[in-house]
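Entry for adenosine-5'-diphosphate complex. Fields follow.
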Amino acid sequence: VWSNCLQVIKENIGEQSYKTWFEPIRPISLRDSVLTIQVPSQFFYEWLEEHYVSLLKKVIYQELGSEGRLEYSIIVDRGNDSNKPQTVNIPTKKIPAAVVNSYKPEQSFIKSPFESKTIDRNFLNSQLNPSYSFENYIEGDCNRLARSAGYAVANKPGTTSFNPLMVYGGVGLGKTHLVQAIGNHIKNSNPDKFVLYVSSEKFVNQFIESVKTNNVQDFANFYLLVDILIIDDVQFLSGKDKTQEMFFHIFNHLHQSGKQIVMTSDCPPRDLKGLEERLLSRFKWGLTADLQSPDFETRMAIIQKKMQSDGIDIPDNVVEYLAYSVDTNVRELEGVLISLIAQSSLNRKEIDLELAKQALKHIIEDVETEVNLDFIQKTVAEYFQVSLDSLKAKTRKKEIVIARQVAMYFAKEFTSHSLKSIGYHFGGRDHSTVIHSVQTVSDMIDTDKKFKVSIQELQKKFKSKAG
Ligand code: ADP
Ligand code: MG
């Protein structure tokens, strides 16, 4: 009976839809006009019911008459609770004759370009930029977890527990680079796998377009072909309920078939407003890893690597200067490097400290109103009546040591510099010296009333400047 049904279904829908939705179905039993079929997942069942219910009713009617009924047996993935698949039986309602007779093939069954022939996967474009790789993705404290999880996924897509892998972090911190590197790595080692990179914005637009042109089915079918789905900036799905629903189905289907999903977002999943709870809960199935602002050392390494790959020589003191001046994100750092290179070639000048300061002028001016390290050092030096240079010098004179420690303490409180970077600004001291200074000042505030007042006065100055 079922194979007769399939015959009719095959004639009514596209080849790809048929392969995707009907070939995986197993007939289980036929008892008293009730045909039971087994489907691989809850999602499968929902999809069939949503899109093929009238077609199914028609074929059941043809084969089993008006008493005919269809029952689904669903293989339920119980996740961690049990390894054995369980089944749930869902009977369909009795078929009203009116529905049966009114079946017409729906618009969405129009053949898609992918359905008219067997798919040649070579034609599927991954949308990856080959210049993003792990080799040129500098590792540092700021990205270690995300990078190594990404590397594990790249080597064993779909089989690690990092599925989905969700990478989040602020703008310009390397999310797109990292997930594209994963995609490129997989593509290079498994050319037969269909890796797809898509921005969430494009995903939304494609979906809206498919609704307009009645091609939702093709849209879904296309995404269900994907072996590794990389979807960038999922915060963009926020508030787009219909698209989210589609993504939810695609996500479930791919995940259940052991396909790898990689996502990025500009904030942690718990802060993704306007995303459905059921989606968010699925994001937590795998691993969530963040990208932090690059620390001083990573910034140094990034500058060195970029200059090296461009074949440009740059003195160490300029690398250091740039690394500590631009501490926001990698994209901005790259921007500064580009303008530095441009100025060097325009003025036919070698890159040196002076040129670097010139190139950074506009950025430094931007932060004039902030409580930055320079301002803290100047203010503290004045307050304790020591010279600015002495804060950065080796001298261990008592009053200078105290002023230096206080300045470090405020640098920690009012700037986003890492301990390492603060140490660098104070004559190249290491981060443990900074920790010790901060601790010493805290202790003195607790024990020395006069000292406490001084600190409060300074604090007021910084707070009023910070606004
Ligand atoms: P996001 O997607 O988080 O906004 P991108 O991935 O676009 O950031 O990164 C911005 C720029 O910084 C890109 O040119 C990228 O190559 C570079 N970049 C980011 N992180 C690193 C890193 N760890 N090593 C080398 N380059 C990086
Ligand atoms: Mg990006």
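NOTE: Residues 77-86, 91-120 have pLDDT under 50 and may be disordered.
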